[in-house]
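[Automated response] Your request has been received and processed.

Submitted sequence:
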Amino acid sequence: MFFGTPVLNASQTIIARVNKTTLTLDELNKKFKESLKYYQFKAPTKETLLDDLVKRELGIQEAKRLNLDKDPDIIDRINTVLYHALIEKQLTAEFEKIQITDEEAKAFYTINPEIRTSHIFVALPPSASQEEIKKAKTKIQAIYDDHLKDGKMSFSEVAQRYSEGIAAPQGGDIDYQTRDRLDPVYYEAALKLKVPGKISPIIKTQFGLHIIKLTSIKPWEDTDKIQIKRILFDEKRSKIFEKYMSELKTKANIVVHQELIK
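Generated structure:
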């Protein structure tokens, strides 16, 4: 470690050299000030921080010597950091302006309540073939026709005996869930039932096939209002993000071959 001499601007005093790279007093003071935000009782000394900066610079230089900065996996990770840095720099101010009132949250909840459901489920992989889909549909239709339609067995009993998935032992019950925690198709199908006790037709989601029973709709008074505000906040933040990305897309030349991913 070699210490240099002051330059004209005192804040640019060279306090260390790592091979051909210099570290300045200004850099050290800036890092020291930032570090104080993360320590409540004992902050690092400037001497310790300077040693950390030297080690960091040594590590960066060694990584470049080994051409890690040209490794595709490393480049991808760097680009991910750049992407998140862009969103933070460009949109944080907009995100911080979002305010959710009690009235807004209640109005949102009226349309998007927390619901309790049970389901009879037959799993399907995302890449299921037409033959697999047909077989699954035949299976769940037979469950409905043979065991549920005539009412000889309760929904819970049918789910325990014939449903797939982790909810089967509980009679298909998946407890109360907010909209953000359920597959959108599942949630909308359950909500359309409106009256607790009603059962849906067979529906298909990204996970497989379901017959849904709406058990209950939680009243606004009983729900976690902070959680509802968080969901609404996330939706507003998502709209800001999508608007920003749409603007970037209009300035870009983008070609997407959707047919290749089916």
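Summary generated for your ticket: The longest helix spans residues 225-250. The chain has a mean pLDDT of 92.
If you did not submit this request, please reply to this message.
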